[in-house]
Amino acid sequence: MIIVRIEYPSPLEEVYSLNDNIDVLVHLDDGSVYSFVVATPNNIFWCMDNENVDYFFGIPPVFVRDLKPDNIERALRALVNEDNGKWLEVYGSRQSS
């Protein structure tokens, strides 16, 4: 599988690159589209503090050191290429095919 396009439904310029998360759509060459949550590790701690809990669960995010386009793209390309895309269904949600 090959990534044709990476789309950011929300402006990437509006996130705090060291402590935030963002939704990302990945368009593949077979026509399928997957959505991902890409986050920084610090953001998970912030979420727990914000909710005043000592745990976190939900759709597993793809972690990056900071939310810069090149880091996000490298992480998503690695995820798509690892073991013939076996992680797509774990970390992503299929939007269309």
Can you describe this structure?
The chain has one domain. Helices cover 29% and strands 27% of the residues. The protein is built from three helices and five strands. The radius of gyration is 14 Å and the shape is globular. The mean pLDDT is 93.
What structural keywords apply?
5 strands; 3 helices; alpha+beta; 97 residues; 29% helix
Number of separate helices: 3
Radius of gyration: 14 Å
The helix-and-strand class reads alpha+beta
Q: What oligomeric state do the depicted chains represent?
A: single chain
Based on CA inertia axes, which overall geometry fits?
A: globular
Classify the helix fraction into a percent range. Answer: 25-40%
* Fraction in beta strands: 25-35%
Q: What is the mean pLDDT?
A: 93
Unreliable stretches: none
Largest sheet: 5 strands, mixed
Summarize the helix and strand pattern as letters: EEEHEHHE
Total count of strands: 5
How are the secondary structure elements laid out?
Layout: E1 3-7, E2 21-28, E3 33-39, H1 41-51, E4 62-63, H2 69-81, H3 88-91, E5 93-96
Parallel strand pairs: 3-4
Antiparallel strand pairs: 1-2, 2-3, 3-5
Quick description:
The protein is α+β, with helices and mostly antiparallel strands and 97 residues long.
